[in-house]
Each structure stands twice: as C-alpha cells, then as structure tokens.
Write a structure and sequence with these properties.
With 89 residues, the protein is an alpha/beta fold. It has one domain: Rossmann fold (3-Layer(aba) Sandwich). It has three helices and four strands. The chain has a four-stranded parallel sheet with strand order 3-2-1-4, sandwiched between helices. Helix 1 packs parallel to helix 2. The longest helix has 15 residues.
Amino acid sequence: MQLKDVAVLITGGGSGLGAATARAMAAKGAKVAVIDQNKDNAEKVAAEAVADVVAETDESARDSVQTLLRLTLARLGPAAAGQAKGGSR
C-alpha cells in the first residue's frame, strides 16, 4: 500500500502499537502526526519515524483532542487515516 503524502494521525503514538504504526506509516511515505500524553516518548518515536508533527495531549480530554486535530490538520492537510489507541486503560 502506498501512503505517499497521506496524512495519518496516531494517538498513543509514543509507545507500543501506536509507535509501531507511526514507524510503519512513515516508512510508506505518510505524513505522520505522533500524539501521546508523554511528549518525550512521542518525540523519540517522531525522530525515528521522521514524523511531521509531534504533540502532547490527554487523549481522554475531548476539547484538547479537538484543538489538536484542528492544528494538526491545518499543518498536514486532510487526514486519510487515523489510529486512536491512546486513552484506553
């Protein structure tokens, strides 16, 4: 599957399945936004995956997520894919 220049937003992207997804999507050419509650982890994954956006947010806080989505989409363009992994405890 080619993802060249496709915007992908991944919450919980700082570790585990989210981080693996960020790396895989970036390797396919996607414009990746790594979003996580732990900004240090998100930045590490972003550096490895060459992500376009790194953000720290509480994925369980609706207002925070909505603001983040608006800002991220303004930078990357319309999202064609997303993975909501964060906030599941």
